[in-house]
Write a structure and sequence with these properties.
CATH topology: Rieske Iron-sulfur Protein
Shape: globular
Strand order of the largest sheet: 1-9-8-4-3-2
Order of helices and strands: EEEEEEEEE
Structural class: mainly beta
CATH class: Mainly Beta
Number of domains: 1
Helix content: under 10%
Distance between the termini: 30 Å
Number of strands: 9
Number of helices: 0
Strand content: 35-45%
Bound molecules: FE2/S2 (inorganic) cluster
Oligomer: single chain
Largest sheet: 6 strands, antiparallel
Length: 110
């Protein structure tokens, strides 16, 4: 469901795994939703290296590592730690009661 401020409900907290990445689709865009450092984060799900599924990556110290070749991406900025010229889009997540809502922030993907 869309709200007037651009947030889209993606499901209830209980529907998601807070210990692993969750693949979600928002307006046709594939995202990876994580619960890390006591907050939900959503980034683009497709690794800019060779398309690895970041929703299957693992989180550590504020980053998610791609399961294919290990490139790490900062969950707050989307910046790749291995390649300064690569990043993924980071989207805004909020909780409304028990519902998780996401607003897409479409940034140029390099
Ligand atoms: S596809 Fe993600 S690091 Fe290679």
């Amino acid at each position: 469901m869309n709200s007037q401020d651009g947030f889209i409900s993606v499901g209830r907290v209980a529907e998601f795994d807070d210990s692993h990445g969750n693949p979600i689709v928002v307006n046709g865009r594939e995202l990876a939703l994580f619960f890390h450092h006591d907050q939900w984060s959503a980034i683009d799900a497709i690794c800019p290296h060779r398309g690895g599924p970041l929703s299957a990556g693992w989180c550590e110290q504020g980053t998610v590592a791609c399961p294919l070749h290990g490139w790490r991406f900062d969950l707050l900025t989307g910046q790749c730690l291995e390649r300064e010229d690569k990043k993924v889009a980071v989207h805004t997540v909020r909780l409304v009661g028990e519902n998780i809502q996401v607003r897409l922030n479409i940034q140029p993907i390099q």
